[in-house]
Amino acid sequence: MKKTFTALSLGLLTSISSFQAFATQADEISVSDPFAREVPPGAPASASFMTLDNMSDQAIKLVLADSEVAKIVELHTHTNDNGVMRMRKVEFIEIPANGQTVLKPGGLHIMLIDPISDLKTGQTVSVKLQFEDGSTKQVDMPVKSFKKMMGNMKGMNHDM
Ligand SMILES: [Cu+2]
Is the full-model pTM beyond 0.70? Predict the structure, then answer.
């Protein structure tokens, strides 16, 4: 490595090393397929889902999320309590070293509590992720209809 770098200008070498030294956890996380759940006016909550890939060799914790579309944003998971699906808040969502964590309906999710307006298919909403080192990542995502996606689980949902 060092031998290759001697051929490069000192300025370039400096910028490469400082980038590696200061790469934040947000830099190491790649987000794919983010979306938020469509909700009608007055709905108590929506949720955001996405796939998080950790490109570093250390586990990274997502510790906070924030969004302008909801008054309260929490990290949640679902647990199966004797056949009844319940949600609960979690302190963090961990993405394993060189691994992947999927936030999906029925599992981990970012809860958008008390949305400031209805969320409609076709809209784009933005959610800010904050990791343990304080670094943040802004994720823009489309709003999608949950009923269409979960059509085969209709019995679990109330018709609106
Ligand atoms: Cu929830």
Answer: yes
